[in-house]
Structures are given as C-alpha cells and as structure tokens.
Amino acid sequence: MASISVDWYGHIVQLTWMRQLMPERELITSAHAVCFHEEQLLIVNLNDRGWDFPGGHIEKGETAEACVEREVREEAYVTGTCQLLGAVEVNHERNPLWNNSSPYPKVGYQLFYRMEITEFLPFAGEHESTERLLIRPQEVADYHKGWHEVYEAVMEEAKRHADRTCATETYGN
Question: Residues of 85-104 as b/e, b for ≥16 C-beta within 10 angstroms?
Fold first, then answer.
C-alpha cells in the first residue's frame, strides 16, 4: 500500500492508495479517470494543476460513475467505459489547518477509475482544460508536476486492469 504525506497549499495531508475500495458515498470527494486509447495514456492540461488525469468533484445528487464520466467529457472531450480501480484516502488528521467547517471530511476519498476511450469528441477547451495529449504511460511522471508513489500505485493498478472487461458498479446517492 503506497502512502505519502504531502503539502496541499499549506495543508499537510496523508494520501494512501487503497485498491478496490468503494467508500461510503458521503466520504467521496471526487472521481478521476486514468484514460487509455490502445496503448496510450490520455492526460489533460488543467488551468490550475497542469498536466493531470481528468476528474473532479462530485456534484450534489451525482453518483461517482456519473461524475467521472462527466468530468472526462468536460475536461478531455472523450467518452468511454470505465472500471473502478480504488480510492486515494485523503487524511487530514495531522493537518493543523483543517477544521469542522471544512467542506471536506477529515478523512475523505478520491476515487480512481480506468477508462477505455471509445470516442474522441472535438476538443473545445470550454472548461478547466486547455489541451489533451496522448502519451506513453511510462512518460506520465515527466508531465505530471506532482507525481509521487501514490499516483504510481494508481497507474500500476490501471495497467493491471488493461485486459479485464470494464464493468462499473452503481451506488446510490
């Protein structure tokens, strides 16, 4: 299990990769996709984060699966089929800046899916992304400015799922 302490804008959080985990809905803060087309990995250049996997926050009443599909369509302008890989636990227990008025739980989760791209839509750049790029999966650390061992564990899990059939599970709101 990969785990690392990181500084997110002055907030010290512990990130831990947990394979095949689907947490309770109220603890899920966002959903992200590791998107593949044939042997290539798709990444997006996001306004505030730079090159990253597409993904974002779950809207009220939205399932995690609907969120990841919407975020990938909005940021990468692709559609596809996806399969849950697991979750990154985001733990604020040692974060002196976290307080009870935070919109995030003290221990929350970012879900990660593997998506097999089935369609490329015209790239319009209308949301948070300025461009999309297909790269070799082994090059992702050269693009992603915050790459660390937790993301490496997510990527390894995504590669392990390459030959499996995609099947999403549906979870209530």
Answer: bbbbbbbbeebeebeeeeee
* In-domain check, residue 33: yes
User: Using an 8 Å Cβ cutoff, are 43 and 133 in contact?
Assistant: yes
Q: How far apart are CA 34 and CA 50, in angstroms?
A: 16
Q: What is the pTM of this model?
A: 0.91
Could you give the number of structural domains in the chain? 1
Query: Around 3, how many Cα atoms within 13 Å sit in the side-chain half-sphere?
Result: 8
CATH number reported for the structural domain that contains residue 16 in this entry: 3.90.79.10
Would you say residue 75 lies in a domain? yes
Per-residue pLDDT reduced to its tens digit, 21-44: 899 999 999 999 999 999 999 999
Report the alpha-carbon distance of residue 124 to residue 149 in Å, rounded: 32
172 domain-assigned? no
Answer whether residue 64 is part of any domain.
yes
CA atoms within 13 A on the CB side of 103: 6
- Over residues 134-163, the pLDDT tens digits come to 999 999 999 999 899 999 999 999 999 885
Among candidate residues 4, 24, 23, the one with its CA nearest the CA of residue 14: 4
Q: Which domain holds residue 143?
A: 3-163
Which residues are paired to 110 by β-bridges? 30, 88
